[in-house]
Specification:
The chain folds into two domains: about 1-160 and about 245-310, Nucleotidyltransferase, domain 5; about 165-235, no CATH class. The protein contains six helices and eleven strands. The chain has helices spanning about 1-15, 110-125, 140-150, 245-255, 260-270, 280-310, and strands spanning about 25-35, 45, 60, 70, 75-90, 95-105, 130-135, 155, 190-195, 200-205, 225-230. This is Transposase IS4-like domain-containing protein.
Length: about 325
């Protein structure tokens, strides 16, 4: 099914430019709960209820044996079923998915992403994934290392429960976003990323007028002002090439919500969540068909004028 989605939908959409630049592709990944139509208690196969015995230990039939209990963090409630995990092209303004996977409801998104990422790289050797936009559930050091091994920049929201558990313990004082704090207790200014030395340059916040700095006599005597460098290798989570919290970082991370709109299209618009299926295979089949339709909708919207002309229907231009 993954190969069908790729060959019949993703590759044609890519050739039409609907996914973005295949040599510089940003992706967004997330999971969404899917409630099964099966009962967590199963169906009794005995005649005990007819005899007034309702709490027997007899065998039962479970129509969806792979379903289990999971936590829906958005609605803050438990659900019984599966989790639909999607990886969507963040550069696609049609919110087009390129990878789908159904897992048990109890599985954490950070665990799912690990093998989903490996499968994605094997499935799409023709794509170069430059950025990965993920929510705080993926704020795990091993995921940063996994992405860094593929030269993919990680744009991951910080998990508040991980505060104070950074690897870096060097001489610099940094805030939660990895910005060095100068001796005047002010965040330093980002001065770009040095690709040659793989380090981030930070400059004095009062470099224009050092007389405004209360700690100027104790700081660097250089007219250029104090300069420090941080390296992503010190702590991949904190020292990101594009500083977390900066305007550039926020502009890129804003596209993470594209995967949420993918779920809305699959589960709501195509009414997959109303199917109440009782098998993860059936769930995955219907979700894949919905994903194929998403790509077809985007392709038809792009090619509609040429399609109509081929069948002899004249189109009226907007200028007319």
């Amino acid at each position: 099914m993954q190969a069908i989605l790729k060959e019949c939908a993703v590759i044609p959409s890519s050739k039409l430019g609907l996914l973005g630049n295949p040599d510089n592709l940003a992706i967004s990944g997330d999971g969404s709960p899917v409630r099964t139509g099966a009962s967590p208690r199963g169906k009794k196969l005995c005649q005990c209820p007819a005899q007034g015995i309702y709490h027997c230990q007899c065998e039962r039939s479970f129509t969806d044996p792979t379903a289990n209990w999971g936590w829906d963090s958005y609605h803050e409630q438990w659900f019984y079923g599966h989790t639909l995990y999607s990886i969507t092209s963040a550069d696609s303004f049609n919110d087009l998915p390129i990878y789908l996977r159904f897992v048990q409801g109890s599985r954490h998104d950070s665990v799912t992403f690990v093998f989903a990422w490996v499968e994605l790289l094997k499935l799409y050797p023709e794509f170069k994934f430059s950025k990965a936009l993920l929510d705080s559930a993926h704020d795990v050091y091993d995921i940063y290392r996994l992405l860094n091994a593929n030269h993919t920049q990680a744009f991951i929201d910080l998990n508040k429960r991980n505060k104070g558990h950074n690897i870096y313990s060097g001489p610099l004082t940094v805030n939660d976003n990895g910005v060095p704090i100068c001796i005047a207790n002010l965040p330093m200014l980002n001065w770009g990323f040095n690709n040659d030395r793989c380090r981030i340059k930070w400059r004095c916040p009062h470099y224009k007028d050092r007389s405004k700095c209360p700690k100027s006599p104790e700081c660097s005597p250089s007219k250029y002002g104090r300069v420090v460098y941080t390296k992503p290798d010190w702590d991949l989570r904190i020292f990101t090439p594009i500083p977390r919290g900066s305007k550039a970082w926020k502009a890129i991370y804003a596209r993470r919500s594209t995967v949420e709109r993918t779920f809305k299209r699959i589960l709501v618009d195509y009414k997959i969540e109303n199917a109440r299926c009782r098998s993860n295979k059936r769930w995955f089949w219907q979700a894949t068909i919905a994903a194929l339709n998403q790509h077809l909708d985007a392709q038809v919207a792009l090619l509609k004028p040429s399609i109509l002309s081929e069948v002899g229907i004249k189109t009226i231009s907007k200028a007319a």
